Every structure is written in C-alpha cells, then in structure tokens.
Amino acid sequence: MAKKPATARKQKTKAGIEVDPAFAYAAMPGVADEMVDKSGAVRPVWQKFLAGLSRMSEKELHERFARADRYLRDAGVFYRDYGSKGVSERNWPISHIPVLIDEREWQTLSEGLVQRADLLEKVIADIYGDNTLVKEGFLPPALVGSNPEFLRPLVGVKPAGGHYLHFLAFEIGRGPDGNWWVLADRTQAPSGAGFALETRVATTRAFSDLYAETSVHRLASFFGAFRDTLQGMKQGGDGRIAVLSPGPANETYYEHAYIARYLGFMLLEGEDLTVVNNQVMVRTVAGLKPISVLWRRLDSNYADPLELEQHSHIGTPGLVEALRSQSVTIVNALGSGVLETRALLAFMPTISRHLLGEELKLPSIATWWCGQKAERAQVARNIEKMVIGPAYSRLPFFDDNGQSVLGSTLRATAKESIADWLKSDGRKLVGQEVVTLSTTPAWINGKLVPRPMSLRVFAARTETGWKIMPGGFARIGSGDDVAAIAMQSGGSAADVWILSDKPVERRTLLPAEESFTRNMPGSLPSRAADNLFWLGRYIERAEGALRILRAWHGRFAESADPDQPLLADVSDYLGIVDIDTKEAVPETLLRNIESAVYSASNIRDRFSPDGWLALNDLAKTARRFKEHVKAGDDASHAMTILLRKLAGFAGLVHENMYRFTGWRFLSLGRYIERGLFMTRVLGHMSGPDAPDGSLDMLLEIGDSVMTHRRRYNVNTARLTVTDLLALDPLNPRSILFQLNEIHREVAQLPGATVNGQMSPFCREALRLQSGLAVMTPETMSGDVYQRFERELEHLSDLLAHTYLG
Question: Is the pLDDT of residue 108 over 70?
C-alpha cells in the first residue's frame, strides 16, 4: 500500500468509509494510478469530486448508481456479446466512477494524437499511392502485400475530398512511469463514440450535482464540428449523408442507430444502396436518391462483393467503381484497416521522422516485427517480458480473444524453442512489451478498488483540422489482469471527464440562430418503409389474437368445457390461423410480438426510446406469462394486461410519431392487418350456422359492445353486428373504416398520382374502398368476406411491389 502523506487525516462518510486519502484507497505497488500519486496523495483533479463523494452514504451511492443503470436500460443501450454460449445482447456495462483528467494533461495528449492522425493520413496516402515507404525501406513489402487489409483494387483511387481518414479512435494507456502510450490505432470503422455519449448521460444521472459543480468539457461541440464537416462534403444540393451499417446483427448496431439519430443522418445497410452510372443511390419509396457521403461502420472487405469479398451479403456491388469516379466520399476510405495492423506500430517512430521530420509525441507500445533477424533475437532474449501475437491482427492483445501468448506463461521447454518458432513464422508474428496499465478507481462491493484501464479517444477531421473529443470512454478491467479490460471478457466502461480550472463552453447541437429553415424529413429508404409496414402488421396481428383469446378464455373460465359449440368453433378458427387454444399463451402470439420487436430493431434510428422500451416491455411480459399462466380466467386476465401494454405502445407511437411517409407505412400495415382480421373473423362467426353466442363474442372481440347498445334499439342480431363491424365508417374497428383510412393514406404517398392519373396501387385502394362502401348488411355473405380477404392481401402485395421492392 502506498504510504500516506503526513498531512492526510482520516475522515469518514456516513457509511463509515475512510475518505482521506481517497476512501482508504490503496494504489497497486509499482503501478501508476489515476487518482493518487506515488506518495499516496490524492491528485488535485480528483479532490473536488472525492469531497462530494465523501458526503454521500453508501445507500445514496447505490441509489445514484441505480439511476444510471435505469437510464441505460430504459434507453435500450446494449452491445452484442459473442460468448461461448452463443450470441446475446448485453446491457452496456457501466463503471459508475468517471476517470478524471486535467485539461492541461489532456492538451498534451491531444497534440500527440493530432500528430499521429496526420501521420496516419500520410501513411495510407502513400500505401495506396506512390508506395515510397516500401520502395525506400521504411516498410517491409510483406507487411503491406501480404496484409489481408491491403485492398489492391483501391490502389491509385484518390478520395473525392482529398483525404482518406476522417474519423479515428485511439486506444491509449498510461504506463508505470506515468507516461501515455498508444496501444492501437482504430482506422477501419471506429466504434464507441455513441457509447461514449450514452455513458456520459448515464454518469451525469448518477452525479448531476458534481457534474454541474465542476468544469467538465462537453462533448456536443465535437460532434457538431464533425457533422458540419460532413455536411460540407456533400456534392450538389441533392446529395445525402448516411451511416452505413452491417445491420442489427453487428455487436455495436445500437451505436450506429444512435449516432444516425443524434446527428440527423440516414441509417442504411448495403441492400439499401445501388450504383447507377457510378453514382451511389439509395432506394427510397420515392425512387432512387443520390448519396454523397457514407460514414461506414462495416469493414472494407465487405463493402463491394464485385471487387472485394465476393461472398459478402452486406455490401453494395459497384461501390469501388463509384469511388473511382469520385462521386461519393466514404468515411473512412476503403482499405484504411491496413493502418490498424499491429506490426505497423514497430515502424511508426521511423516513419514519423521520415514523413514529419519529428519524433512521435505520443509513442506506441514497444513492438518488434519478427520478420527481421535482429528483432527476432530481441524478442527471444526478452521472452519473459514479451507477449507474442499475430502480426496482422488489428486488435491489441487484450482484445484478440487469446490469440496472443504471454512469454512469462510458457513452459521452459517452449522457451528453449522460441527462437525456432520465431524464425519459421516470424513474418506472421510480433513481440510486444507486456503492458502494465495504470489503474483507476472502480466501485466494487462497497468500496473504491484500483482497476487497470485504457482510454478510447476519438479524433474527427473538421474544417480547421483534427479535433479530439474532450473525453471518450475508459475500459475498466473486471480484475487485476489487463486482459480483463475487453468488453467480451467482462470489462466495463467509464466516462472520462476532462476538467478545467475555468468555466467551459456548454454547446448543444441545436442551432444558435433565431432564424431557421424548416427542412422536410429525409427520404424514407424502402427497407425502412418495409419494416415500418410490417411492424404495423405484426402489432395489429398480435392485438387481434389477444382479443379473440381473451374472449375465448373468459368463456372457458365459465364452462371449463372446450368442446362447447361456441368454444369449439372458435378453436377451429384459431387453428386455421395457427393459434392453439391448448396453450394459455400460444407460441404464435409470442412470435408475432417478437417479429414486431425485430422489425422495430431494424429501424432503431427512427424509433423513440419510449416506444422501444414499451415494445420490449410487452415482449418480456408475454414471455413471462408463457411460463406461468394457465387457461381460463388466469389467461383472460393475462390477455387484458398484454392488451393494455400493447395499447400503451400504440398510443406512444400515435401521439409522438411525425406524420410523414414513415408514419403512413406503419399505419397502412395496421389498417390492412386489422381489415384482414375483421374480415376473417366476421366471415367465420357471423354466418347463419354460427353457434349461439357468436355475435356477442364478435362485439367483444371488436371492442364494440357499448357502441352496439347505444346505436341499435334491438338485441344483438346478425345484420346489426355486420353493419357495425363491417360497414360503419365511424367505427375504428370496422372493415370500411380501415379501407377509408387506407385510401386516405395512400393518396399521400409518393407517386400516388402522376400527371393527374392514379397509380395502380392508388386505383386498387379506391376500388376496394368503393366496393365495400356500396354494400349493405344483407349483401355481406361468407363469399363476400372471402373475396375482400383476397383483395386485401392483393393490396398488400401491390404495396410491396410498388414501394418496397
């Protein structure tokens, strides 16, 4: 334990925790610590925060941490975990105590990272340009030519804006001597900026008072400057900016959607794009629209199956050719993953002196490429201090899932043969000095405990040069082992506060001007429209199933006889639509709700956090009921609860969603599905051979019992039920109401009329609506219902053909 300074005095919090120095916190011997110096004294940058912390009881701290956790859960912040048990979604693992760094130290770090960003730009421009670094011996040819991230089709392709790199991340750590190192350069498709924002919001929920009392640099100006830069890259007035994502299966998909929503960009996948005349276009419901800037979040190899990875299902054919024509800017340029190669760190000091004429201000972790004789010998002689790993890996050793070997763990016999191994496989290997990272406080089991950490810091190219995010996030180890820093290994993330001695700018992304221009919402990609349409259908399908199941179980609770004519007849109908009444909560109902969640997950950038939370709450409740609910009254009550939750979700969407094209596709999905449901159930249950009680059950399913009593001065009859549930234009459950709304929404869609003529889809919607509007209850028969069911299905197919293909 570090020795306490002579001036230290023990104080205690309400929970009895020793406060000074630093909550009885003991830094690890021989390890640099972010909170206390070598003498054990609390660093000045931490003193105000710790003073505030010392006023809190342990109970209060837990309540504060719970607020942060609740925010992350409610916002749905997750990343995908690829573990031994398969793929799962894991809540974003926050370490609640932020890392505090003085702005003067941060300024020094920033200068080193800006220099490094400029150097990386020059290196990649040379690799895909004149290749002088290889020609003049500064880079081994094998390190480029054999590198899987070196993309030959991109050689000689100059980026439209003149720059290859626009957005970077750096993994940095502090060593035992207190100096910082670069552990890895992230140039391919750096992730984490969105998570840094969410981690900041969650941490400020826990420490809103301390955050307000300290001068912490805000993050919004960083994102605002980068957004403005991307806006300036647009070519022509009609060009669009989009975030290009591999899709919901990606481990950081949440961040892709969050960044797109935060900055107001489209979120696209490869299938949304096509290349026409060397111009990248997005498929929208209004036709093809040009894309000027793509902020890609998928690896370069998968971007174009024509010229790169031919087995890619997430790329866009022709994208490389569009780059050759300079019609689109990609952030970062395809092929930039070559800069992440671990072995490249060994050559960065020499390259810096050659290209910049100066030493690296922020050195890389000591690295030796074993493709050279002297370097192999160096690694072999110092194997106890080395970690050996794949030369072409793009990950630091603590992220590479055990591909690296720690020299100190090798058996004696293995150490004796290390030189032979390095000689035979040297070009594929690097040796790196074992990292001893500095520690930072984490709250573990009621006390502050030192844990190893690294920082992920972001750099964005702006109109005035590189800008470093004043913060980022820290990866905190789950134990003393550095390898436990990785998220996939149980690590967590902490906010990083850059503290100033004076007030800091508090900028938001909102415009400061009093005047403004009201822009129309962006074009709706066809894939997004498809997901909105099917979200509406699945939600309505689930509601229809819930209503009919509630009515069935309510009557079953009274008779306990499933063979009763009415119950047996309804069971037959439900069997036709693949719903088994032997299950209290049928699997088909769960699949419809899960399908709705999946459709919503594909449009997270267009979905409010409240709506997402409500939909997931519905799904979780349904899964819970599946395990415990029994048939009869119990199931009927469960269906009522699920209906209320579904109504809550629908209400959020109805009240909050902007009435533009996306809203119309969601609504059309609901109207078509509700129309189909009422058509089928009326056709089955309102015929002359329907069992006793069918008409009353129909009114209950259609949520129209009280309306029927008020509107008709007779008992329940086939004609009155048909009039109310099929032909009443004012009943939001009737078939005609759905067709009226469909016709109204269709008329507002792009291309509904061209040169005064209705499109085939618009014409079909009008024909179907008019055909039902002239019907009378007497003319509604089983055959008529079947005909309208077929025509509604045809209308759905026509919508898909017109807008979603």
Answer: yes
CA nearest neighbour of 723 among 780, 791, 784, 781: 780
DSSP-derived 3-state class of residue 623 = helix
Is the peptide bond preceding residue 445 cis, with omega within 30 degrees of 0? no
If residue 432 lies in a helix (H) or strand (E), which one and from where to where? strand 429-433
Query: CB-side exposure of 64: number of CA atoms within 13 Å?
Result: 21
Which residues, including other chains, have CB under 8 Å from residue 737's CB and lie 6 or more apart? Answer: 728, 729, 730, 731
Do the Cβ atoms of 372 and 435 come closer than 8 Å? Answer: no
**Residue 798, Cβ density class (10 Å: 0-12 exposed, 13-18 middle, ≥19 buried):** middle
Q: How far is Cα 191 from Cα 188, in angstroms, rounded to an integer?
A: 9
User: What residues have CB less than 8 Å from 629, skipping those under 6 apart?
Assistant: 584, 585, 635, 638
Q: What ranges in 445-601 are assigned the alpha helix state H?
A: 526-559, 565-576, 587-601
Average pLDDT for 623-638: 94
Three-state DSSP class for residue 468: strand
CA distances from 713 to 207, 399, 695, 716 (A): 64, 74, 16, 9
How far is 114 from 464, CA to CA, in rounded Å?
Answer: 12
Going by C-alpha positions, the residue among 433, 394, 350, 431 that lies closest to residue 176 is 433
Q: CA 446, CA 412: separation in Å to the nearest integer?
A: 42
| Paired strand residues for 389 | 430
Look at the block and give the residue holding tokens 């415990």.
628
Cis peptide before 140 (omega within 30 of 0): no
Give me 250's structure tokens.
């990606």
Phi, psi of 121 (to 5 degrees): -60, -45
Q: First CA to last CA across the chain, in angstroms?
A: 67
The identity of residue 784, as a single letter, is V
Give the model's pLDDT for residue 297: 95
Is 521 in contact with 658 (CB distance < 8 Å)? Answer: yes
Handedness of CA 657, 658, 659, 662 (dihedral sign): negative
The residue behind tokens 């969407």 is 653
Nearest-5° Cα angle at 56, 52 to 61: 110
Average pLDDT over residues 74-78: 83
Question: Which two three-digit tokens encode residue 98?
Answer: 């932020």
With beta carbons less than 8 A apart as the criterion, state whether 386 and 379 touch: yes
Could you tell me how many residues make up the chain? 805
Q: At residue 662, does pLDDT exceed 90?
A: yes
Q: Residue 528, Cα to own-chain centre: how many angstroms?
A: 15
Q: For the segment 423-435, what is each residue's pLDDT rounded down to a tens digit?
A: 888 899 999 988 8
Tokens representing residue 782 in the block = 């089983």
Separation of alpha carbons 454 and 180, rounded Å: 10
CA distance 500 to 103: 6
Please report which helix (H) or strand (E) contains residue 420, including its range: helix 418-425
Tokens matching residue 435: 């990292």
For residue 203, give the nearest of 492, 509, 612 by alpha carbon: 492
Is it the case that residue 491 has pLDDT exceeding 50?
A: yes
Q: Which residues of 246-261 are buried (b: 16+ CB within 10 A; e: fewer)?
A: bbbebbbbbbbbbbbb
Confidence of residue 4 (pLDDT cuts 50, 70, 90): very low
